[in-house]
Amino acid sequence: MRILFVNQFYWPDAAATAQQMSDLAEHLVERGHEVTVYCARGQYQEGSTQRAPRYEQHRGVHIRRLAVPSLGKKKFIARVMEYAGFHLLCGLRMLLAGWRYDAVITLTTPPLIGLYATFLKWLTLGRTKHLCWSMDLHPDCEFALGMWSPKHPLFATLNWLNGLHFRQAHAVVALGHCMAGLLRNKRVKEDRLHVIGVWSWADQIEARSLDSSPLLTEHGLDGKFIVMYSGNAGLAHTFDAVNETMLRLKDDDRIRFLFVGAGKRLDEVEAFAKEHDLTNFMRLPYFPREQLNDSLAMGHVHLATLIPSMAGIAVPCKTYGIMAAGRPLLFVGPPESDIARQVTEAECGHVVHPDDPDALVEHIQRMADDTSECERLGTNGRVYMLKHHERAVGCKAWTELIEGLKPAKD
């Protein structure tokens, strides 16, 4: 089959969507399919000076990068303009050349990019199959954050268009059952709806013993109990309980809170630490993907957070890398979310309500007192990941879906 992937970010970008899509695209090439990617030249990580070529072939995947300017992520208007530029260039290319492909797989960055695949489906009378890979839901996200009103005519129209491209797709892939429930509310037919979670890499991320990362020595953290947050921290994440926990544990010299990554919320955490003169706080930039194993191994326990209203709208992909690294997870978020269910089912950590810093302090102190609990929970997480969220598992499910897909009846 000739398959086209569409997403703003792709290899060598560090964005989670780029890494997941790279894995699947390369797997499909190994299966004998011809795979092309449309993405932007700009990088997700701000400040990156890397300029990838407009066209290259990497591991058999044809990559066509569009000259969309990277305007930054901190200002909303800049992000909208960047999205609009990608829509214009990518949409035009899809409409002119997309009919050549047997299947078009669109992700959700930027939002509504899948509409062009809907038009292709109509223009080819259903020959070109459209698969939506729902990494998150917009404008549901903006509604949940209180940024937009669903009653506003413009945003109501965007919501309708978003639902349209999901309903018209031959298949829609949700990351979890909570997200699948929200897609059902958009009237996506049950026979088109599939749940395939994101994954990690058993061969790239190995479970290491505690205190084994060389990066601990490099950054002066030897002998400390590390509570780590790794990855992007945007508006969907909550850190009130984490901030309060850092404040309460500021005099416990055993414990350090390490934040690796970027995002508006991490800027706020850093400002909180400076305001309160917290010496148990450290922030580092993203590590290259080839150092991911060493980076994740720095933490004795890892944090993931999500505001309650975002359950099903977004899924913290970092969860499965943490499991792969054999580290326990403290999930600060809604107990009804997929991540909370999986942490409980796998017995690989603890779920803490965002309004309960007492519980977060208790869990951290107990594990700092007895690191054998970290080892036990981390081992459980690794076993769960290998069974449900290893790269081969996810790619196999996707391959079966793509190769077995028949045009659905409208």
Beta strand %: 15-25%
- Under CATH, the topology of the largest domain can be stated as Rossmann fold
Helical content class? 40-55%
Q: What is the oligomer described by this structure?
A: single chain
CATH level-two architecture of the largest domain: 3-Layer(aba) Sandwich
Shape: globular
The CATH class of the largest domain, by name, is: Alpha Beta
Strand order of the largest sheet: 3-4-2-1-5-6-7-8
- The CATH superfamily of the largest domain bears the name Glycogen Phosphorylase B
Q: Structural class from helices and strands?
A: alpha/beta
Q: What's the number of helices?
A: 15
Could you tell me how far the N terminus lies from the C terminus, measured between alpha carbons in angstroms?
Answer: 23 Å
Number of structurally distinct domains: 2
Give a written overview of the molecule.
It contains 15 helices and 14 strands. The chain has 410 residues and is α/β, with parallel strands linked by helices. The chain folds into two domains: 212 residues, 3-Layer(aba) Sandwich (Rossmann fold); 175 residues, Rossmann fold (3-Layer(aba) Sandwich). The chain has an eight-stranded mixed sheet with strand order 3-4-2-1-5-6-7-8, sandwiched between helices. Strands 11-10-9-12-13-14 form a six-stranded parallel sheet, with helices on both faces. Strand 13, helix 12 and strand 14 form a beta-alpha-beta unit. Helix 1 crosses helix 15 and helix 3 crosses helix 5. The longest helix is centred in the N-terminal third of the chain and has 22 residues.
